[in-house]
């Protein structure tokens, strides 16, 4: 199994997550190649059984470089993909101290929905998604982020094992 992981890390948080994901997959029959968005050409991505795209959130949206890559991306319809984003941790309300609910967060945080919209318009197939919170503008990552990445890696390994069509010949 071959995974191509493309991240758009600006302050290094996404790069840490990508490296951790690669390490969590090491020792399995899954090979993960990690690339920064500036190092890949959207019309000539290496063949893979699964593509993982990662972006930090900026003003509730994916960073511009990943949006441009996804819009110009040329992969065959039916190609499988997953998302693993780094997003700003919800902050307590300054007056009440209450943390927003997941529903309230979804009203202003659109990183993953925007990425899904672009990729599904190209008829790519989502396999999964996960988010890792960043506690400040430049970091650090939330407590326990390593376990979230390990759990997501495990989830994707299970999905690959359960769906034999997910593992192809990488011929596209």
Question: Can you describe this structure in just a few lines?
Answer:
This protein is α/β, with parallel strands linked by helices and 172 residues long. It has helices at residues 13-25, 64-72, 102-108, 111-121, 145-162, and strands at residues 2-7, 31-36, 50-54, 57-58, 61-62, 80-88, 125-134.
Low-confidence stretches: 167-172
Element order, helices and strands? EHEEEEHEHHEH
Helix content: 25-40%
What is Rg?
16 Å
CATH architecture: 3-Layer(aba) Sandwich
Shape: globular
Major sheet summary line? 5 strands, parallel
- Spell out the CATH superfamily: Flavodoxin domain
Tally of helical runs: 5
Q: How many β-strands, per DSSP?
A: 7
Count of folded domains: 1
CATH topology: Rossmann fold
Based on secondary structure, the structural category is: alpha/beta
Strand adjacency order, main sheet:
2-1-3-6-7
User: For the record, what CATH class applies?
Assistant: Alpha Beta
Summarize the SSE layout with pairings:
Blueprint: E1 2-7, H1 13-25, E2 31-36, E3 50-54, E4 57-58, E5 61-62, H2 64-72, E6 80-88, H3 102-108, H4 111-121, E7 125-134, H5 145-162
Parallel strand pairs: 1-2, 1-3, 3-6, 6-7
Antiparallel strand pairs: 4-5
Helix pairs in contact: 1-5
């Amino acid at each position: 199994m071959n995974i191509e992981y493309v991240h758009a890390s600006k302050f290094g948080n996404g790069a840490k997550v990508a490296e951790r994901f690669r390490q969590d997959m090491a020792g399995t029959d899954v090979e993960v190649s990690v690339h920064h968005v500036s190092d890949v050409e959207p019309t000539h991505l290496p063949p893979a059984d699964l593509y993982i795209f990662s972006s930090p959130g900026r003003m509730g949206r994916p960073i511009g470089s990943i949006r441009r890559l996804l819009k110009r991306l040329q992969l065959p319809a039916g190609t499988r993909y997953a998302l693993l984003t780094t997003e700003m941790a919800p902050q307590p309300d300054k007056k009440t101290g209450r943390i927003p609910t997941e529903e309230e967060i979804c009203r202003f945080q659109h990183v993953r929905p925007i990425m899904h919209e672009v990729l599904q318009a190209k008829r790519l197939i989502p396999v999964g998604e996960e988010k890792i919170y960043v506690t400040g503008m430049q970091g650090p990552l939330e407590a326990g982020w390593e376990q979230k990445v390990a759990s997501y890696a495990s989830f994707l390994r299970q999905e690959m094992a359960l769906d034999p069509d997910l593992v192809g010949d990488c011929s596209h």
